[in-house]
Amino acid sequence: MDLNNITQEEFESIEAYLNHSLSKDDLLIFEKRLQNEEGFAAKVDDIKTILSGIETQALKEQLDKFHAEMPSTVKDTDVFEPKVKYLQWRKIAVAAALIIAAGSFWFLNRNSNEQLYAEFYSPDPGLPTTMSSTDNYEFYKAMVSYKQGDYKNALSTWTNQLKTKVANDTLNYFVGSALLADKKESESISYLKEVTNNDDSVFKNDAFYYLGLAYLKNDNLEKAKEYLRKSDFTKAKDLLKKLN
To answer: What would the pLDDT profile of 151-160 be if each residue is shown by its tens digit?
Structure first.
């Protein structure tokens, strides 16, 4: 992002445009410039990035400080004041660029990851709960709790069963799924990995996909891509396209 080619007047005009506070006449002039002037749209995008990045409280406070430093008027007859204002804008531009580089990239990137996670994640629907025809009553009773969104109750039963069936892929998969649904992404990873190590597991493909999502939520893009590539799901491939 190069802020050195944006004047203070342009900054204020673009900010007003993005805030929908331009008059009708000024808006027409601005939109014509946006359509006809080469490079102006890029400037608008740069300022939009800055304004998006400062939505966190710390960065918003910095921008308020920058605005407070800006003189409100410029006298045409004053030779020195415009130069001072120009230098102040350069100072603001440099400071804003540093803030974007140090903090906003992380903020926006994290925000993007969370949006993608929300778009592609939905809890595993679980298994059919035909408890009357099964000997494993407790497992399927917990499955009912899981389907009802009572993840803590389901986890209590399944983790207890795992103590005697450590390598059981079904238990590992649904413990991992319940933890993921309960917003405990980091804790879900070890259980889902256990499933992926079992070549005979019917849940292996699902586990790869949910592992990719768990790492995405934790902002580990390399690991997210690694596991998404191993899943045959169409939505895994669609998510990879957005991450690449």
So the answer is: 999 999 999 9
